[in-house]
Amino acid sequence: MSAPKPRVVLGVSAGIAAYKVCELLRRLTESGHDVRVVPTADALRFVGEPTWAALSGNPVTTQVWDGVSDVPHVRLGQNADLVFVAPATADMLAKAAHGLADDLLTNTLLTARCPVVFAPAMHTEMWEHPATQANVATLRARGAIVVDPASGRLTGKDTGPGRLPDPAELFEVARRVLARGPLGRDLAGRHVVVSAGGTREALDPVRFLGNRSSGIQGYALARTAVARGARVTLVSANVGLPDPAGATVVRVESAEQMRSAVLEAAGNADAVVMAAAVADFRPAEYRDAKIKKVAGAGPEPIHLVKNPDILAELGARPHPGQVVVGFAAETHDVLANGREKLARKGADLLVVNQVGEDLTFGRPDNAAVVLAAEGDPVEVPRGPKEDLADVVWDLVVARLKPISG
């Protein structure tokens, strides 16, 4: 007997971004979820009922009076494994925060006992208005996950924060929240900083010293933290991946730029996870013009100097309660080198993995051993990088001090 399909209520409020949610719905249904679309009446002005019904394979209604004998305004929320509202307009956030229930979607939100996710989309001024921010804070305090909007082109000529994140990234949020279940919001109210990718140290305008890091593990850490309720700052170095929905992405190139961005973001962070591959050295001299080959002569030697050690600097900073996690990519003597690095860097946790040809870099899977300043090592067998991310956050959560107040 096959397992029942996860039941998702996809709420749609009246925003122009509703057309993007058709792609989110398609991804949910094609991956085996039973989706019931519950739009507001005005949302149907943007995407009509036949589209939602055809894509979901389920009836669509906006009113509590349709099918009264089935008590849909109670049953939908009671039976759902996830309620996901996208786009969530300023009006919808206000209604949800204040417990208003004037249609089927708002009634469903009041009866839901499963995880609830809101993906806001609106103009920048509306998103940044104190009333909206207060409503978001209220919803988060109650345990809802509110995914911060992306920044980019809005309707008309406007640009700024308020854009609905990419549907593929919203699907990843939904998938991770469902995988964690009702107990998965253990990072709610926390600010975490994650670094990802590989730094590049410029030799001249066209060349650099770099490494093979793809950023996949760091992005998995960021996505997983968002799905567990955290506010996430992702410092990304030379990564060609889509922005994780809900994360604030700060782009850098060099180790010195990463140091500045990480230390600034870490000032009020509960945890910092340094998953990026930061270059240990950089060229002592930067050439303003392209270095040319000289006929009959060999290449000039490249003199290197040390880059700042960001992880050691984080470990040495007096920041009570902050959990610092490092990553160590080793080619040999993995555990011995990892233990030495953990002691030297002053981190709370160190994720050690073996790297090499066709290992770790650029792959969707990873295997690692997590070392702690105290306690036994935690072995993580090879599997999706999101699984390793969850193990890391589990260990971080166990070390976080309770939120005061």
Automatic annotation (TrEMBL):
Catalytic activity: (R)-4'-phosphopantothenate + L-cysteine + CTP = N-[(R)-4-phosphopantothenoyl]-L-cysteine + CMP + diphosphate + H(+); N-[(R)-4-phosphopantothenoyl]-L-cysteine + H(+) = (R)-4'-phosphopantetheine + CO2
Cofactor requirements of the protein: Mg(2+); FMN
Domain Flavoprotein, chain residue ranges per copy: 7-171
GO molecular function annotation: FMN binding; metal ion binding; phosphopantothenate--cysteine ligase activity; phosphopantothenoylcysteine decarboxylase activity
Listed EC numbers: 4.1.1.36, 6.3.2.5
GO BP annotations listed: coenzyme A biosynthetic process; pantothenate catabolic process
CC terms in the record's Gene Ontology section: phosphopantothenoylcysteine decarboxylase complex
Domain of life, per lineage: Bacteria
Signal peptide positions on this chain: none
Alphabetical UniProt keywords: Decarboxylase, Flavoprotein, FMN, Ligase, Lyase, Magnesium, Metal-binding, Multifunctional enzyme
Sequence segments annotated as region (Phosphopantothenoylcysteine decarboxylase): 1-191
Domain DNA/pantothenate metabolism flavoprotein C-terminal as annotated: residue spans: 187-397
Cofactor-binding details, from the entry: Binds 1 FMN per subunit.
Pathway membership: Cofactor biosynthesis; coenzyme A biosynthesis; CoA from (R)-pantothenate: step 3/5; Cofactor biosynthesis; coenzyme A biosynthesis; CoA from (R)-pantothenate: step 2/5
Binding site for CTP: 280, 290, 308-311, 327, 341, 345
Region span, Phosphopantothenate--cysteine ligase: 192-405
Family designation: In the N-terminal section; belongs to the HFCD (homo-oligomeric flavin containing Cys decarboxylase) superfamily.
Biological role stated in the UniProt entry: Catalyzes two sequential steps in the biosynthesis of coenzyme A. In the first step cysteine is conjugated to 4'-phosphopantothenate to form 4-phosphopantothenoylcysteine. In the second step the latter compound is decarboxylated to form 4'-phosphopantotheine. Catalyzes two steps in the biosynthesis of coenzyme A. In the first step cysteine is conjugated to 4'-phosphopantothenate to form 4-phosphopantothenoylcysteine, in the latter compound is decarboxylated to form 4'-phosphopantotheine.
Name of the protein described by the UniProt record: Coenzyme A biosynthesis bifunctional protein CoaBC
